[in-house]
Amino acid sequence: MIDKYSHPEMARVWSIENKLDKWLAVEIAVCEAWAELGVIPPEALDKIKKARYDVRRIAEIEAQTHHDVTAFIASVSESLGEESRYVHLGLTSSDIVDTGLALQVKEASTILNADLRQLIAVLRGLALRYRDTIMVGRTHGVHAEPTTFGFKIAVWLDEMQRNLERLQSASRQMAVGKISGAVGTHATVPPYVEDRACAILELQPAPVSTQIIQRDRHANFLVTLAVIAASLEKIAMEVRGLQRTEIREVEEPFAAGQTGSSAMPHKRNPILAERITGLAKVIRGHALTGLENVALWHERDISHSSTERITFPESCGLLDYLLRLTVHVLSNLRVYPERMRQNLELTKGLIFSQRVLLALVNKGASRKEAYEAVQRNAMEVWEKDLEFKELLGKDPVVNRYLTLEELRELFDYGYFLHDIGVGFERLGLKETGPQHD
After folding, report:
1. Burial of 249 (0-12, 13-18, 19+ CB in 10 A)
2. What percentage of the chain's residues is helix, strand, coil (to nearest 5)?
3. What are the residue boundaries of the structural domains of the chain, listed by start?
4. With 77 labelled, which of 51, 129, 301, 320 sits at a CA distance of 20 to 30 A?
5. CA 272 to chain centre
6. Domain 350-410: which CATH number of 2.40.10.220, 3.30.450.20, 3.20.20.70, 1.10.40.30
7. What is the pLDDT of residues 110-150, one digit of tens each?
8. Interior CA angle at 86 toward 84 and 92, to 5°?
């Protein structure tokens, strides 16, 4: 999916031309290593470094050979003379394909790393801005106790910082090359060539390999992208939930001239957040495919190859898209603190039920007695839409332990937020945003 939210460089990373460029870079690096061992003459290496390929010619040859690497080598050889005999010396196709894929993933990871850092910066700004913007916290979709919108965002920030660490770790595990021949034993290509070629390409050599780099690395990378996408879906799901008409505490950006429905002109639907939640599912599906590819027959089979032509470009491209789209949504998010306050007061004081319970226990009531008294009045609020504090003030059990003044003092929103700054300090967020409570 390529539009204004996609990074054009990501499309280049997964283009056929860049893939073939990486294959050629691997072939040349291997030839350089062979030349250092005296196997390839210097003058031949000079010509090999200028070797080229032709995409259309590769397609013509592949139509006959049904083998992409064979077709690639043939096209490269046509750009050379007799020195072409040194190209692909001692190698097998996976030496080129797997090492080339590692180079592509390295480039893609650089883009995703930058995307994540941009999102983290946006989240940090929002967390600080809405640090003290009080709202109701919900569990099971039901009002629980007060929190702040900034605290909600701080939780997302913490998660995205972990995702950045996950991406960096998974990228490092993918940044390995493999130049070890048909079943990985170095029978036709010495370890020196592998070490030197990987050094030239700025990769680490896989410590051991079969004919392929082991696919646990690839599965881990795809799963990591899926975890990041799941976190984006989590954010988008919250935006969608808070944008519901009955709640309407936030809204995703709605552009001038935009329409929400072909039938109902009033609609302002969370289509961007819904797009994020939908495409995250696609990335999760690719992660499952990556896990299926870990187990291959013996030293290798080719069942993973066809899937990776889809899973890696699509997962990287989609995650890049979703990260940038999420940045757009959050950077232009409409936030309604007044509505948050209205919703906070919707249940007529029920959110103070735990505080009243604890106060009764602290005053000498048994937990059972206190719980039953508070719950009895809370249920009446639910059923009759009455004020919780007023009902409690008339309850004989409550009056036995608490004065009306003590009861009144319990209904203080500030009580719930007295330690909310600790989480911000742990995240290094020490500035205070505007007050909205």
Report:
1. buried
2. 65, 5, 30
3. 10-253+266-339, 350-410
4. 301
5. 16
6. 1.10.40.30
7. 999 999 999 999 999 999 999 999 999 999 999 999 999 99
8. 110
Q: Which residues are catalytic?
A: 140, 261
Which residues, other chains included, contact 238 with Cβ-Cβ below 8 Å and sequence gap of 6+? 152
How many C-beta atoms lie closer than 10 Å to residue 55's C-beta? Answer: 12
Around Cβ 141, how many Cβ atoms within 10 Å? 7
Structure confidence at residue 402 (pLDDT): 92
Q: Across-strand partners of 204? A: 176
Architecture of domain 10-253+266-339: Up-down Bundle (1.20)
Assigned token pair, 8: 């054009």
d(CA 87, CA 35): 12
Q: Which residue would you say has higher pLDDT here, 254 or 429?
A: 429
pLDDT single digits (tens) 408-436: 999 999 999 999 999 999 999 976 544 44
The pTM (predicted TM-score) of the whole model is 0.92
Q: Which two tokens stand for residue 148?
A: 């702040």
Q: Tens of pLDDT along 346-377? A: 999 999 999 999 999 999 999 999 999 999 99
Q: Which tokens sit at 205?
A: 């050599």
Q: What is the largest CA-CA distance in the chain?
A: 102
- Distance, CA of 208 to chain centre: 30
CA distance 161 to 154: 11
Question: Whose structure tokens read 């757009």?
Answer: 328
DSSP code, position 86: G
Beta-carbon neighbour count of residue 50 at 10 Å? 9
- C-alpha span between 105 and 14 (Å, rounded): 9
- Measuring CA to CA, which residue among 217, 222, 211, 216 is closest to residue 176? 217
Report the candidate in 74, 47, 48, 45 with the shortest Cα–Cα distance to residue 62: 74
Tell me 206's DSSP state.
P
- Name the token pair of 427: 């995240």
User: Which of helix, strand or coil describes residue 256?
Assistant: coil
